[in-house]
Design a protein that fits this description.
Length: 73
Amino acid sequence: MPLDPAHLALLVCPESKAPLLYVPAGVAGPDESLFCPTSRLRYRIDDGIPILLIDEAERLDEKEAERLREMLA
């Protein structure tokens, strides 16, 4: 289930403080996630709860981050 847009608007990347983009399931893997284009971090969502811990986020390389940015644009 997608995050409520009002809630998503309140969330920022803990590292860069930039807004996060919602990544639906199937776009960048089987599960939904949140992506920060600035820090290139992808945060998982477990049972509808965003896990905004830098140590548990996946840092994408520049090529993968650009591909994801284009898919979400």
